[in-house]
TrEMBL record:
Cross-referenced SUPFAM superfamilies: lambda repressor-like DNA-binding domains (SSF47413)
Domain HTH cro/C1-type: 12-41
UniProt-listed InterPro entries: Cro/C1-type_HTH, Lambda_DNA-bd_dom_sf
Name by which UniProt lists this protein: Helix-turn-helix protein
Residues of the signal peptide: none
Any one Gene Ontology molecular-function term assigned to this protein's record: DNA binding
Lineage of source species: Bacteria, Pseudomonadati, Pseudomonadota, Alphaproteobacteria, Hyphomicrobiales
Length: 85
């Protein structure tokens, strides 16, 4: 289910840019340090640490509330982000 999927760091960074949100704004919204957002956006590995997973979910949820749709990699297309119509 797409609601349970974790976006990649690249997707988070692209989503923030799409809605004009700075790392500091996102960090404050989810209650972490800006450096945490920076590190997670730079991650290339799929998170397995429960704390990282929870933080990625919080970032995803905040960005989705701002109208971002996360497009997860499939056999038909790569990953990406878009704004809701």
């Amino acid at each position: 289910m797409a609601g349970d999927k974790i976006p990649s760091g690249r997707m988070i960074r692209a989503a923030r840019a799409l809605v004009g949100m700075e790392q500091l704004d996102l960090a404050r919204e989810i209650g972490v340090d800006r450096r945490t957002v920076s590190r997670l956006e730079a991650d290339t590995e799929i998170p397995v640490n429960p704390l990282k997973i929870a933080t990625f979910r919080k970032m995803r949820d905040v960005l989705q509330e701002r109208g971002v749709v996360f497009l997860y990699r499939s056999k038909f297309h790569g990953e990406g982000v878009a704004l809701k119509d």
